[in-house]
Hints:
This protein has 235 residues and is an alpha+beta fold. It is 25% helix and 22% strand.
Amino acid sequence: MVTIAIDGRKVKAKEHSTILENTQELNIDIPTLCFHKNLSPFGACRLCTVEVKTNGRWQLAASCTTPVEDGMEIRTNSDKARESRKIAAELLYYRYPTTEAVREIARKLGLEVPEQKDEGHDCILCGLCVRACREIVGVSALAFQDRGLGRDIDEAKIEFNPNSCIGCGSCAYVCPTGYVRMESIGDKRIIWNKVFTMVACSVCGRYFAPEDQLKYISRQTNVPFERLTVCTDCR
Ligand code: SF4
Ligand code: FES
């Protein structure tokens, strides 16, 4: 354990834990957009910025990616931290003015956000889908494209590999903006424009999982496919 001070309050923190993990323990409200507690931190949105004193100097840092150190002092609500978060929100809002998740954060951080007619569903490059696919599902069907040296950030996109995707839909569940669409029509599921055949539960008959996903689980666990064709409600 290490000892840190958050807004003047001394607390014990686990070694290698992040500032955000500790502020969340204390129920301190810090905005986030690219963070998910079950995924590795990424540091893309900068909305979680706080002020940190290390080696005698106050500096701004993303709380989701910055590990605590013994003796560290943290200010979660200083003028500088708030201003920095507002700038991060402004930049996001400037790029994705119609996307509701961005508009909501912008509003929360004090920007004037006029009413809109049509809601957009932009990809804000938060990387949550890429991390969920790699870290939770373990198939890495999504990746950032065009992130090489000299590339403009505007060119960055999420690249979909249809050969790896098993249609589980984790990316759609985790996407904060609705960019990843998942549609169900009869025994088909469509995601990233790939069509998956769904399996009906052998007890209740409800379509509950893509065949490719069950085959993947069967390969990973050595459980025969036939034993996986019962939905969670009927098990
Ligand atoms: S598709 Fe959604 S989850 Fe993936 S990077 Fe874009 S906004 Fe984030
Ligand atoms: S939540 Fe920390 S940088 Fe996005």
